[in-house]
Structure formats: structure tokens, C-alpha cells
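A favour between colleagues. Tell me how you read the following sequence-structure pair.

===
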Amino acid sequence: MTIANAEHTEIIAATIKWLERAVIGLNLCPFAKGVHAKRQIRYVVSAARTVEDLLDDLERELHFLNDALPELVDTTLLVLPDVLTDFAEFADFLDLVEVVLMTHRVTGILQVASFHPDYVFADAEPDDSSNYTNRAPYPTLHLIREASLSKATAAFPDAEDIYQRNIETLQNLGLAGWHALDIDSDASTRS
């Protein structure tokens, strides 16, 4: 195994740990458990070190997901260990993501959710527990099929309340509880 492959394996392992302990474990996304159990999540570690290279990776993964059979690959986590590590740059990049979706005519077919180790909502303080709903060990773009999301939300009672319930869960958990999940230590130890 090459060093890059070994690093990618560690990055994917940290991402899966976060998914299992936080996203599924805290039920932050009630739809994640099913696709995880069915192994329908594609994990891709981008080797990009520039925004231009990341755009190439994003476009390739959007096309891959759009062309893949949903029962085989329903969603993709594109993990970005070496680019957009600064949250402000990451947040600015999200505007470009919307342009890419429109340019490739997948708006309404695919969407992208965002996660970052330093995620801060526009109206929140950096240490506000609500930010942890979108914190992951590495900057991550979650490519989602809109049809799958619509189907999942239709089957889930009170889907519109998930966001508020997540904030309450994280407020009850507290910062010490979040750190006890031991999900952000993997990324913070990388140089």
C-alpha cells in the first residue's frame, strides 16, 4: 500500500467513525443509517491541493453519482484533507458548487451539503453547539440524490424538525460530550 493510499484509508476511517458516532449515533441524520448499513455510500478522498483540482474532482463525482445505480451508490462523501481547510475559504467555495451544479445541469437532481471541522453558521458564535451539526473531521462535500432525499423525508415523520432537534441534541450533549465521541481528534493530529 502506498503512503497516499494509507493516508486515504485513515481519512476514510476517520470519516466513517464520525458518521457512525455522530451522524448516526446521535441521529443527526435519520436517513444515514440505512444507506450506511446497505453500503451505498461512496467515500472519495480528494488529492486536490488547489480549488481548480477540487473542481475537477467534484465534477467527476457528480457525474459518477448521477450515472450510478442508486441501489449501488446512493450518496457520496467527497473528503478534502488538503484543500479549503480554512472555513472562510470553504464557505466561499460553496457558492461555486452551486454554479457547478447548474453548469452540469444536475440542479434538482443532485445537491451538495457541506461539513467542515470549523463549521460556523452565519448567525452563530464559533463555540455555539449548533455548529457541530455540520462539523466533520475534514472538509467534506456530501453529494446527495434529490430523489432519495425526497423519498426519505416523505417517509420520516416531522422531517422539517430535524434541524431543531439536532440543535437540542447537541446543546444537551455539550462540548465535553462532543469531544467524548472522539471523532475530531484524528484530523487534528494530522499536519
Remarks:
- The first strand starts at residue 41 and ends at 45.
